[in-house]
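<instruction>
Derive structure tokens from the sequence
<data>
Labelled lines for chain and fold
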Amino acid sequence: MDAAQTTPGPIVPAPHTTVDRPARAAPPGSPVLPVLPVSPVDPGELARLALVFQRRLDRLPDDIDDGWAALNALRPALDQMPDGPSRRRLMLTLYRRWCGPLPDPRLLATPGGRLALHGRLGLLSRLCAVALAGRPGVLRCCVEIRARRALEGALGPAMAALRESARQGAVVPAQVAAWSPIQWACVGYADLALAGAWPHRGLRRLVRLALPARWPVHDGRHQVPVRHACALEGLARLDALFAKEPT
């Protein structure tokens, strides 16, 4: 058999998806999410992003939260599987099963697409930053030492910039100010998903799998504070808050 047929090439996103098709009408009463425009991108940059996406899929199990039962059932077998064509084919199969179809390459160049390319830790830090950028009062009210240190560890150098903009933020309850970074990352994901940062289901699910399967943000008196800035504005700030691009 021809080697070209048995050895898979790079996992490059499919060039044609519903991004170019008119959206279907939503049922009455359904929330309508905005669809972000896809701007022309330099072919060289698209090729680079496609390779980053391929590496993201190659390490797919490493970037999924341990709370997902489907991954836990497979992890012993995956740990025994060496790198190579067979493992790459399996990663692509798992992506399609857990996330959906491959995205249009141009979507990788959008702010949401670039965010999805980060590994789990970098992704969680940035989602946390998006949530806090829209709620500057949280850092102003975060006086509990454990919570503050946890945020400092998650946000790194972005903490100082976010704290600088928190001086005029609205007060939040002490219970909310003490939330953990993973809780704020979940809030950031919800903010961006509602804002339409990931119109492609595959990218949206890829990000969701980095978060706990069981949602750690409670209802009732611990409700999420109102966002005072658009989540997409927080997304646009990430390049300034975190210098490193995914590789």
The CA atoms of residues 175 and 222 lie 7 Å apart. Residues 1-35 have pLDDT under 50 and may be disordered. The longest helix spans residues 43-58. Residues 45-242 form one domain.
